[in-house]
Amino acid sequence: MDRRLFIKTLIASAAASQGFAKANDSSPTAAQIDAMEQKHLEIMSRYQSFLEGEKLTIGMLVYPGMFLMDLMGPLTVFEAMLNRDIHLVWKDLKPVNEKPTGSTSVSIPITPTTTFKDCPKKLDVLFVPGGVPGTFNLMRDTEVISFLHEQGTSARFVTSVCTGSLVLGAAGLLNGYKATTHWATMEGLAPLGAKPTNQRVVIDRNRVTGGGVTSGLDFGLTLAGLLRSPAYAEAIQLYLEYDPKPPFNAGTPRTAPKSVLGFVSDMFGNTGDVAKTAATEARLNYASYFKR
Amino acid sequence: MDRRLFIKTLIASAAASQGFAKANDSSPTAAQIDAMEQKHLEIMSRYQSFLEGEKLTIGMLVYPGMFLMDLMGPLTVFEAMLNRDIHLVWKDLKPVNEKPTGSTSVSIPITPTTTFKDCPKKLDVLFVPGGVPGTFNLMRDTEVISFLHEQGTSARFVTSVCTGSLVLGAAGLLNGYKATTHWATMEGLAPLGAKPTNQRVVIDRNRVTGGGVTSGLDFGLTLAGLLRSPAYAEAIQLYLEYDPKPPFNAGTPRTAPKSVLGFVSDMFGNTGDVAKTAATEARLNYASYFKR
């Protein structure tokens, strides 16, 4: 990796220690970067065990109807790794929103950094975030499914968070693998040949899938440990101060009060059935991808 | 709240159950929204205890050098609440990036939805995310500090995640209050008159501050419980499947292996000293805000 780029990846966390940057300008000057370069080379030389490792190429699918938090957990962890390229991939470079346009939510458009056509091959990580109804749209989208199938057969790790696993499954990438998804869509996994596994993060050979939405941080750190080392992942965990203390214990149907589960289940309506139907349909549509 | 808007806020999670929207179009049609409206009114009538509550107005500061994950945790929780307006506030409406432009990170620009001048007064929630060096820039920025001081004296809850508390403190809003921040900048709190408190989320009267970065989800759910009800927050926790299972136990200096703490501390350099200096400087610059 270009040495200067490598140093620049260290600037964000180091910038603070310089107290530079006048108000409204948080971009270090070339001189300041030079000043920090020597310091960081010293630090790096003291911590080779953390910093060595081949350059990683990470491809993260972004799409209309994706749930932004599904992307942000893993992205935050991957960005904290050194010597990696992260690509946000979609059909074109037009910004996609993380929420259906029907919602009144604050919309944070995500601009893809590359396209299916230009995305590097043999990714170290292929990642698909979840989000409904976006997920169900993708399961019927031949262009998306073909891209994932092709990349998935050559990627070092094939991964997802939340309902992203249903899209991987539609591309035949979870056939015979243990996997998980959001609790409300677990019924969608079996029709795709996957073995539904009720764990926060499920690892089966090179498939790594996370549960609903907020599993992204647990997933990201797990993958960082596999890609680099446990110590490397621990450094990221400490940097992000990931010491979760949920104020309530309702994060799963198992622990949530009955009344709360009843309300949220009603809000999800028949999402589970829809997931099952979409999965069955996808397996028929892309039958050739399920041959092994 | 406008009934139609209210219904639309329910669409995102309900959309899936309809399995509508052809590929690449995750926006429900007016007819589909109408079809869902009746269904949701039925659900709502069954769950008044979850859905009632006055409309909330939430103002979240966004700024150059902010750390996006600090915003996303709380934003994800707040977006899951019904009957609320969320404003992303900055000096102008130009997009701000969450990382210094010196970094090679994937940049996700955040576009403010309103300005200091147009931001509603008497906010239910005033929120400031962290991020260095952006935080230290803001602590010296009279325009920002004046805005926060004015809003902070009228807001129902004055809140932050990570180093955002140092900016609140610079505006005299934590003088005499228990508060927390990222572990690497705890030294910055005392000079601002705050009482450094080593907890994931610290509540002191109407001040609610979270620890580093990933505390945003714990913070958001805590605040949702205060704004609505514990059951309401539990429903959001279940929706987001927030049942964290960190694969490592290095989320705090207390639990991290010595070698990991050594590396991350070196990466932060003298950030703690810089925070202390910036805090001392801010208290002098804005002395009048500290009078009580």
What do you see in this structure?
Two copies of one chain form a homodimer. Chain A has 292 residues and is an alpha/beta fold. Chain A folds into two domains: 3-49; 55-243 and 268-290, Class I glutamine amidotransferase (GATase) domain (Rossmann fold, 3-Layer(aba) Sandwich), CATH 3.40.50.880. Chain A contains eleven helices and nine strands. In chain A, the strands form two sheets. In chain A, strands 3-2-1-4-5-9-8 form a seven-stranded mixed β-sheet, with helices on both faces. A two-stranded parallel sheet of chain A has the order 6-7. In chain A, α1 packs across α2 and α4 packs parallel to α8. The longest helix of chain A is centred in the N-terminal third of the chain and has 17 residues, at 30-46. The first copy, chain A, is globular. The two termini of chain A are 37 Å apart. The model of chain A is unreliable at 1-26 (pLDDT under 50). The interface between A and B is large, with 115 and 115 residues.
Count of distinct structural domains of chain A: 2
Mean model confidence by pLDDT of chain A? 86
N-end to C-end Cα span of chain A: 37 Å
User: What is the H/E order of chain A?
Assistant: HHHEHEEEHHEHEEEEHHHH
Helix fraction of chain A? Answer: 40-55%
Largest sheet of chain A: 7 strands, mixed
CATH overall fold name of the largest domain in chain A? Rossmann fold
| Sheet with the most strands: spatial strand order of chain A | 3-2-1-4-5-9-8
What oligomeric arrangement do these chains adopt?
homodimer
Alpha-beta content class of chain A:
alpha/beta
**Portion in beta strands of chain A:** 5-15%
Most extensive chain-chain interface: A-B, 115 and 115 residues
Q: CATH top level of the largest domain in chain A? A: Alpha Beta
Give the CATH H-level superfamily of the largest domain in chain A.
Class I glutamine amidotransferase (GATase) domain
Overall radius of gyration of chain A = 20 Å
Weakly predicted, low-confidence segments of chain A: 1-26
What overall geometry of chain A do the principal axes of the alpha carbons give? globular
CATH architecture of the largest domain in chain A: 3-Layer(aba) Sandwich
How many helical elements of chain A?
11
Number of strands of chain A: 9
